Amino acid sequence: MNVKKDILWRVLVSIFMLVFLAAAILYSTVKIQYGKGDYWLDLDDSLHQKMLKVPAIRGSIYSEDGSLLATSVPIYQVSIDFGVIKEFHKDSFEQYKPLLAKNLCNTLKNRTYEEYLDILTKGYRATTRYKTIIRNASFIQVKEMRGWPIFLNGKNKGGLIVQEETKRKKPYLDLMARTIGFVNENHHGAGIEASFDSVLSGVDGEQYVRRIVGGYEPVEDEFSIKPENGKDIYTTIDIHLQDIVSENLSNSILANGAEFGTAILLEVSTGKIKAISNINQTPEGLFERFNHAIGTNYEPGSTIKLVSALACLDNGGVELEDSVEVNYGKYKFFGRDEIEDVGHGSFKKLTYRQVFEKSSNVGISRTAYDVFGKSPEKFIEYFDELHLTTPLETGMNGEAHPKILRPGKPGWSGMGVPSTSIGYSVAMSPLHVAMLYNAVANNGKMMKPYLISKIGSLGMVDATFEPTVIESKICKSSTLKDLRALLEGVVQNGTATDLKNLPFTVAGKTGTARISGAAGYEKNAYNSSFIGYFPADKPQYTLLVLVSRPTKGRYYGAAVALPVFKEIAKNIYANAVREPLPKADTGALPKMLCGTVRELKEVTSLFDLDADFDSKNREFIILKPDTDELIERAIQFNGNKMPNIEGMSLRDCLVLFENEGFKLNFSGYGKVYEQWPNEGTALIKGQNVYVKLRVKP
Known about the structure:
With 697 residues, the protein is of the alpha+beta class. The protein contains 22 helices and 33 strands. Helix 13 packs across helix 19. The longest helix has 34 residues.
């Protein structure tokens, strides 16, 4: 009996404990579910969710006439998650493996069929979670892959992982490449790309994603923080003039065996930089390696004699017809420091006008010393007042900081004024010199040179940069009249007579300067230059040409740089008359819009336009009006046949054709109005496609 009671007691205790334990579990479950549910859900989210960066689209760079100078083209890195494939397709993978290998080989063309078969076999066997197969696939290639067996199930159930990136494209290749510039992943670089990186790059967005098998998926459809795409930059460059300048400068560098050359074309009335070329000769050929126009200090030599003439004339120290002793081309200051001329040894005296026209070092330096020898600081003040001793603040990184010897400072001596007056003991960028001559051409009004005209996006302008007057008058009116006469005289009677028979008038100055190195002035090393403006009676353009270290026996500015100036000026003058751009259509609906669906959705939303969209965000479409709304037409390669691309921009053509493996050739600017091959023509991979662009009325 006692045994039975003992067993019963134990059973009851056990039952009680089980009931108590069940009640405790139930209590804890309820407490976790309702009391601390939010805490545990937040903890789970923190372990399985994270914020991913959504890159902004970098803005494009355009010339003033709308030609595309730099843009971002999408490329895709494609990887395979064999863990997902093994989980969802273990029964069918072996069946489709040969087909996938064949498709990958034919579409991507970066490996053989056997190599892809091996990758698929080994990846599946090892359950490789992230096997990258290509890093620069095109949108069309990715679109094809997403339609294949297994992969058509998407990233989470098909194992195809696609990551979009962008590469920077310069349609005009090396044309003004250094001025356009570049940036790396750390946002370091050069040119416009680096100088205006914060404007072009935009602001990246963010999106919450949840970890799932094979990767992540968005928690919500909308961005947590929507990316703000970069702004577009419009430069002052005229691409037609740029092409003329670069081609002729390149020819001169080759013909003269020069190390590098630079050329700057300014619009006289505004200071706009219409063309800027910096070309280095390398063992691999001619390339833009450094922006010498803005970033290189050089001793300008005879072209700076314009400052000497301005100072002496403005100070009343000399008149054009005054006689100056040039002493047969040689003169010793203080009985020891000799300055000499080249080619003027037969003259004892010259008028000051002739001194300038013939570029007499003796005449210029003796006059400057006679006027300013006892007050050299006043002479240096003219350089300061002409803004030749401070950076120009163009907004571009890497600007040169001019240097000049000053009275009372280390290095100054009695030869300070004579040396500086002929372009030594002072160094500045070529753009400084161009700005000076442009002021003379512009009736004494000095304009700040500038390269960026406006910033904006989607047709909206956020900032406009207007011409800036630095000095309303650089000298007396009588001095300016004399300076223009001197510069015209150089062409008519002096060192630049090769320019006087052109169908338009030119005013300018030749320059030849020895190059200084660590051990002093180098032997047979010269900078050859010419700078002038044209037409001289009604100046429109100022042009500087500098050719450094010519090696073919010629080194004078008149023999090396002047011929380049002549060819450029002739070509510009012949093409100066342009058909004005048509006025924009201001109707209720635009005649045509072209771009990706994503871009056109933004445009139609911004301008409150009704549009019907069926295509996916990355596909190219054309929108045309139909009664009261815009209707889309997809631009597609149907069986590798040429689509109708009328109305597309150059940027869109680059994305569409070059990512698909075709070579795009173009002429003009604006929108496509003519194409070859014609619509419907079968295309072969690698084939050339030709398009003509224009701005339509």
